[in-house]
Write a structure and sequence with these properties.
The protein has 2 helices and 8 strands, in the order βαββββαβββ. By secondary structure, the chain is an alpha/beta fold.
């Protein structure tokens, strides 16, 4: 197949699964510490369906509890959250008792890393405004 002529109609990611051991604890972290909005909190077979997202985001995070898909809590890596002020967000996370690594200056911006209560790894980034990047 010639990839140069293929077309896709994908517009965005609907949700990212974050496996957690305790949905209430995870909800408090994502809502109260990170400031995300709750976009869904429903009882569905086989369990509770909880979704959160930064205000205005198209992609939401599903806080997948035990029995929901066989995901391993703490196994998610590499989620980059873009912020307009990484330093202020790092200070707020540290004040809430979250261990934060950074922020550090990178060629693409100022970055920091942290984990949610289940060990899922997240990063914060204030992007550098550079032409061509």
């Amino acid at each position: 197949m010639d990839n140069t002529t293929s077309t896709t109609y994908i517009t965005h990611a609907s949700f990212i699964t974050l496996p957690v051991t305790d949905q209430d604890r995870a909800l408090r972290f994502y809502r109260d510490v990170l400031g995300f909005e709750v976009t869904a909190d429903l009882q569905m077979p086989p369990g509770r369906w909880v979704q959160v997202a930064p205000r205005g985001a198209q992609t939401v995070f599903t806080l997948s509890g035990p029995g929901m898909g066989g995901f391993e809590p703490g196994s998610t890596r590499g989620i980059m959250l873009v912020t307009t002020d990484v330093d202020a967000d790092c200070a707020r996370l540290a004040e809430a008792g979250v261990t934060v690594q950074g922020p550090k200056e990178q060629p693409w911006g100022r970055m920091a890393a942290f984990h949610d209560p289940d060990g899922n790894a997240l990063m914060l980034l204030t992007e550098t405004e550079k032409e061509g990047f």
